[in-house]
Amino acid sequence: MADQLLSTVSRKLRSLPASYVRPESQRPRLHEVISDAAIPTVDLGSPDQHQIVAQIADACTHYGFFQVVNHGVGNKSMRLMMEVAQEFFQLPAEEKAKLYSDDPAKKIRLSTSFNIRKETVRNWRDYLRLHCYPLEDFTPEWPSNPSSFKEVVSDYCKEVRGLGFRLLGLISLSLGLEEEYMVKVLGEQEQHMAINYYPKCPAPDLTYGLQAHTDPNALTILLQDHTVDGLQIRKDDKWIAVGSHPHSFIINIGDQLQALSNGRYKSVWHRAIVNANKDRMSVASFLCPSNRVLISPPEKLLSEAGRAMYKNYTYEEYYDRFWSRNLDDEHCLELFKNASSLESENQASSSSGGNQS
Ligand code: OGA
Ligand code: NI
């Protein structure tokens, strides 16, 4: 049902169709969003590794998000990635229809909203989702239109994977672990990509590009057009709008790093809102533990905390659970909490941020 793609139909719509309108209590309340806050910026080109590690510890503890500059991924690679993403969504409807699927199990698919088989209200977003590691297993199925797509996206994926592994090293150090710890424990990591297209929207205050959620994977690396805001994160019970420097990436901790840090680092609620006047694109790269990896924090962090916050589970179990729910249900990690930590936690602080949006 590729005729559902917004990139095909949105220009013809004068008002927001009812299927996208959130009930009053779930709307984004844009006038309440803090627009002049900033997330921490980490300069990865700094010669002072101690400072980098300290900044990352602080950002992961208090924000779950940070921005990186001088990160080693080429400006050209970032620019070409954005350009080819834009070209892709401008292809004729017949061309895009070939890739359309609403089956989340597929390793390449073009779809709309989030999970249209389950959700009751739509999101104002189209997305192309790709598996990206090992590249040679997946590129044969990738689009060959635009003609540069495979090459540009492959190059970009390799560079981003390098950055992700470096960040996992710094994150390990910031938890007082050996640098290789997370990379070892996460196994042969999968890499997925969501190329998100949020067309301009007739009523941004009634709907979302992507409603509040946390990312189920380990680490997310987001490239966004810095000229169009849209990403917002939950901080101190408020939504804050996240702008970005040109040439930067926005990094966030996913649920698995929250679990592996025994809850010290936060996988924070975030959402994308849409704009009345401008289209927005973002490219999210997700590093994911391999399916059979047991998610279990290191002894050092357990003894420091005096208890295990979560039960041990495999990533496969987690991922199945995540996709069987609605995106803005309670934090999926809550379902894996240990009874002892449930009792001692204040329920208010562990409740969902998603339904307060
Ligand atoms: C995501 C996501 C935010 C954005 O794809 O998981 O949070 O700004 N995207 O597109
Ligand atoms: Ni996300």
Descriptors:
14 strands, disordered C terminus, Jelly Rolls, globular, 357 residues, four-stranded antiparallel β-sheet, eight-stranded mixed β-sheet, single chain, 19% strand, alpha+beta, 12 helices, binds nickel (II) ion, binds N-oxalylglycine, 29% helix
Ordered list of secondary-structure elements with their pairings:
Layout: H1 6-9, E1 41-43, H2 49-62, E2 65-69, H3 75-89, H4 93-97, E3 108-112, E4 126-131, H5 135-138, H6 149-174, H7 181-185, E5 190-198, E6 210-213, E7 219-224, E8 231-235, E9 238-241, E10 249-253, H8 255-260, E11 270-272, E12 280-288, E13 294-295, H9 299-305, E14 313-314, H10 315-323, H11 339-344, H12 347-350
Parallel strand pairs: 1-2
Antiparallel strand pairs: 2-10, 3-4, 4-5, 5-12, 6-11, 7-10, 7-12, 8-9, 8-11, 13-14
Helix pairs in contact: 2-6, 3-6
The structure holds N-oxalylglycine and nickel (II) ion.
Tell me what you see in this structure.
Helix content is 29%, strand content 19%. It is an alpha+beta fold and 357 residues long. The protein has a single domain, classed as Jelly Rolls, CATH 2.60.120.330. The strands form three sheets. It has an eight-stranded mixed sheet. Strand 8 (231-235) and strand 9 (238-241) form a beta hairpin. Helix 3 (75-89) crosses helix 6. The protein is globular. The model is unreliable at 347-357 (pLDDT under 50). Bound molecules: N-oxalylglycine and nickel (II) ion (NI). N-oxalylglycine is lined by residues 194, 196, 210, 215, 224, 230-231, 270, 272, 282, 284.
